[in-house]
Amino acid sequence: MALRVLRGDSRSRLSAVLTALGVAVGTALVVLLSSLPGAVDARGERSQWQYSEHAEPTGTALSSADFVRGEQITRLDVSGDPRVPADAPRLPAPGQVLLSPRLAELTRTMPPGELADRFPGEVAGTIGPEHLRYPEQLVAVVAHPPGALDATAAGHEGGWAAGQAGTQDFLLKFLAWVGIALLAAPSLVLVASASRLTAARRERRLAALRLAGATPGQVVATVAAETGFAAVAGTAGGLLLGWPLRMLVMHVPWGGGTWLASDFTPSSATVLGVAAGIPALVVLAAVLGLRRVVRAPVGAAMEHSKKAPKAWRLVAIAAAAAFFVFGLAFAQQTGNIAVLLASLVVIVLSASVVGPWLTAVLGTLFSKLWRRPSTLLAGRRLRNDPKAAYRSASGVVLAVFVGSMALTLLPGFESQAGGGRSFKDSVLYLNVPAAQAAEQRRLIAEQLARGGTEATVATAGRVVVETPGNSYSGLVIGCAEAAEVTRMAVGACAGPPSVRADPALNLQAVGLRVVPTGGYGESNGSEGGVPVPPGTPVRPLGGQDPDLVDSVLVDPSLVPGVLATGETTVAVAPRNDADREEVRTAMALAAPGAVVQSRELVLADQQTILGDLRRITAIGLVIASVLAGCSAAITAASSVVDRRRTFGALIAAGTPRRVLARALRTEAALPALVATLGAGAGGVGVGYGLLSLFKIDGALSPWVFAPVALGVLVAVLAASASGPMLRRVASEPFAEE
């Protein structure tokens, strides 16, 4: 029976083709998004060896970050026979280096003093893509003689890069599962819209079969077969579409680089689950829509009015909000986001429960308050069949929800950007134990002199300045050196040694103690502190950066013993920006394995993450908008086909076609306007909730209203698809109806 219908009815064939296309798009998206966590894991496994950090009797391996012309370099210095993962590339011999292909190319094209000299030794080979986080990654492995590396002198206290990689990996996995939860819904709406293209015609046909004696099981089997053909074909097409799609997605950067094509290979379990699950869901959705035909075939055949939705549907919104709050609390306490993701799905589904009731209320209001013919026709449609009327706006509502949530999250993440130490942007620095500071300063100065590079080399002891009631972060540094390397306006350096601080702190020398810090800027305890001599002048710091308002500078002669322990920073300020790469090279040669830091390196990581978020947000919004627009256009066209009898009667009674076209646009725009306002508010609320998960204070941006305006515009434009269908219906004879 299903095959005969598809062969003999062109409208049913069109519906089947559109359903198959919708299923193919949804399948491809689900497979792609579900492969992202695996792609992240593949990246991590390939690059895990780069973050090894050991100092042991057999050998030493020190991971560090370097920087060249705005790009980050991952560097691994090794000596002896250190423990590294089994899947690491073969380590070079002492006096040799391994470089990634792109880093090797840069060393050949840039002056040696800017880059190549940082990696002393013979280039023994290149690192293959199977050992790189992404193909463009800059990686160097530098081998030193046994015993040449000193982890303590280099200021190492743990792997720097593993933590950063872990943060980005968690973020991408989180976004992948959020994408599955949110973008899968517009895909299902597109499928549902396509399958409803001939819903009224199918309903009358099935009602006739029931009245002719067909059993409910036969009716259900017929629809399952008719829908199953399209669902299976669409799923197969989506799985095939996934292969060229991943070749496109592999060029989308994340974390500073692109991907390997093999990263997006879905697991067998994913492919089998999608191949079996998506057709089953599509068929189940079609079968569930047959309740009226199965129970009351006469009512379906005569197109009796449907029951109006009840106000109890509003409970769905409250329940979804409560579930989301519970998911947030559960994620904050356990770190498990499964419940939180489930709550997002529930929020999305709750819109489809409340939407028809809201549409019916709008229809009642417009039917009673307006007298314009097109508005009255639209109001009657919204009131008499709110489920069908809301269907055209449902995809747009989901897109607006996703857009408002994303545009709430982005400003919150951007507000966390910035920071860094109190040094000037051009200053390069490294942290070392206080006992090693003088030696490191001498080695760096000698290396700079050897290369003919002019720069100021200074040491700044990291301390905590304690008062009877408060404590402040501070640097033990001379006034002249502070003027050269810090962002603080120290003023005139003439006069006796002093403490310099913002006047708002109201510091007095009486009771001040200077305590050396540990490796993470924490106080070692007041027992190691040195009191500031009474009567020491406290001078103001002028033009202070707001980030440094609580910083204090202490002259080294006031606390002569404080720098014997704790951590000291060796800072180098080049005379001009053109010498910055030479200064990096000199510091890398003077302190092998040390992490040469700078403000730009801190900001580069932040900007990379923010750029990734903006890119993913833009891609997600485009996909959601396209899916929503397609589903709205198909629904608008199907609404004309479903009401062929009604429009034929209206046209025969003399109703102008332009009035009907205006009514179609109105009935699409009204529910879209109200529902998108609610979806926008919901997206903002969910966005603030997710920001609280990351302990970020959000700021409402005017851009969060853009998805609402865009959603209404998409709904109205999609409604214009009903125009050609209306002209076609108007030109057909109505006697057969």
Mean pLDDT: 81
Helix content: 55-70%
Envelope shape: elongated
**What is the count of DSSP helices, taking H or I runs of 4+ residues?**
21
Distance between the termini: 22 Å
Question: What structural class do you assign from the helix and strand content?
Answer: alpha+beta
User: How does the major sheet shape up?
Assistant: 9 strands, mixed
Tell me what portion of residues adopts beta-strand conformation.
Answer: 5-15%
Weakly predicted, low-confidence segments: 158-167, 519-526
- Based on CA atoms alone, the radius of gyration comes out at 34 Å
Number of distinct beta strands: 15
What's the number of domains? 4
Transmembrane segments: 174-198, 219-243, 269-290, 311-331, 337-367, 388-413, 616-637, 668-691, 703-721
Pfam families: FtsX (PF02687)
Domain ABC3 transporter permease C-terminal: 180-297, 620-721
Keywords: Cell membrane, Membrane, Transmembrane, Transmembrane helix
In short:
56% of the residues lie in helices and 12% in strands. The protein contains 21 helices and 15 strands. The longest helix has 44 residues, at 599-642.
Can you tag this structure with a few keywords?
737 residues; 15 strands; alpha+beta; 4 domains; six-stranded mixed beta sheet
Could you characterize the architecture of this molecule?
The chain crosses the membrane at residues 174-198, 219-243, 269-290, 311-331, 337-367, 388-413, 616-637, 668-691, 703-721. The structure is a single chain. The chain has helices spanning 2-8, 10-47, 101-109, 161-195, 199-211, 216-249, 268-288, 291-295, 297-302, 314-334, 338-369, 373-384, 386-414, 434-451, 479-485, 580-590, 599-642, 644-652, 657-693, 706-719, 722-731; strands at residues 54-56, 59-68, 71-80, 96-99, 122-126, 138-144, 428-433, 455-466, 471-476, 499-501, 513-516, 530-531, 538-540, 552-554, 567-574. With 737 residues, it is an alpha+beta fold. The protein folds into four domains: 1-53 and 180-302, no CATH class; 56-151, no CATH class; 355-417 and 601-737, no CATH class; 428-596, no CATH class. Strands 7, 8, 9, 10, 11, 12, 13, 14 and 15 form a nine-stranded mixed β-sheet that branches. The chain has a six-stranded mixed β-sheet with strand order 1-2-3-6-4-5. A hairpin with a 4-residue loop joins strand 8 (455-466) and strand 9 (471-476). The longest helix has 44 residues, at 599-642. It is elongated. The protein starts with a helix and ends in a 6-residue tail after the last helix.
